[in-house]
Write a structure and sequence with these properties.
about 280 residues; mainly alpha; globular
């Protein structure tokens, strides 16, 4: 009877981080987080000051005054509504164009697809002022100046390239067998795209839509270039002109900025898990 001796298994032990080291990383993270969030705190603090002068503002609003918020709501509510309409319209138009384009680039053997993707990347590098000046000339001829559809079209053009890249990367990570099974069952490309690809791409769609919303919501350059009257005025342009009129009343300016920040913060918190899944979905195939 032969006895087989097994070599001892060597296990590499990884030293666990000490508690002191963990506390050091936590303290460092809190420090950098406090630095990044300090402008937000100061904005809220200045909005609650009685006279709102940023040079003589205390570090904490001992006696909060909401006069600035009352002024902001009375005079900027229309601008907030205009920005909301433009942002939602930009999201709808961007996804309506970017999702089919991403599907075609991901699943169809399109000749020159690499050139198309490279052109999309290049379009993201063009300075916004160049695009705005070109759009001004075209909008002047088409009668789209000082109009909500014109701003929706401009902001969508800014968000579509990024949306295509995000959605296509996610679709590339989807198993091709799912699409092939639908094709075998008799579904056409349109049916497979609508019934299978879009539901599975929910995370990337939400991610692309959220970033497009933020692009449109925070847009200042297109709003300043493509509007010449007060008929259409997004909140970013309202804050810009507000500063000139209320330079000594920063509480109203900061209150408007706080109100303008609320939709973006709510959307980011609500869609946090979808953003994490959407941005990393195409990283590993």
């Amino acid at each position: 009877m032969t006895t087989v001796l097994k070599a001892p298994t060597l296990r590499r032990t990884v030293p666990k981080p000490t508690g002191r080291k963990n506390w050091g990383y936590t303290a460092l993270a809190i420090f950098f987080l406090a630095i990044m969030l300090f402008p937000v705190y100061w904005m809220v603090n200045a909005s609650l000051q009685p006279n709102g002068t940023t040079l003589e503002t205390s570090w904490f609003p001992v006696k909060p005054d909401f006069t600035g918020y009352a002024t902001a709501i009375n005079e900027q509510a229309g601008n907030l509504g205009t920005s909301l309409i433009i942002s939602l319209g930009s999201v709808a138009l961007s996804l309506a164009i970017a999702a089919p384009a991403a599907y075609a680039l991901a699943y169809f053997k399109v000749r020159g697809a690499g050139v198309v993707l490279f052109a999309i990347l290049i379009s993201q590098m063009i300075p916004g002022i160049v695009v705005a000046n070109a759009l001004y000339t075209a909008y002047n001829d088409l009668g789209l100046l000082n109009s909500i559809p014109g701003l929706i079209l401009a902001d969508s053009a800014h968000g579509i390239p990024f949306a295509i890249l995000i959605i296509r990367a996610f679709m590339n990570g989807m198993p091709a067998s799912v699409i092939e099974a639908a094709r075998v069952d008799g579904a056409g490309h349109l049916r497979a795209f609508w019934s299978i690809v879009l539901p599975l791409s929910r995370n990337s769609l939400i991610t692309a839509g959220l970033f497009t919303f933020l692009f449109a919501w925070s847009d200042f350059l297109f709003a300043l270039t493509l509007t010449t009257t007060e008929a259409v005025r997004p909140v970013t342009l309202g804050i810009f002109q507000y500063i000139g009129a209320y330079v000594n009343d920063w509480s109203s300016v900061m209150a408007t900025a706080v109100l303008a920040s609320i939709p973006a913060i709510v959307l980011l918190v609500a869609a946090q898990k979808f953003i994490a899944a959407g941005t990393t979905g195409g990283a590993v195939k």
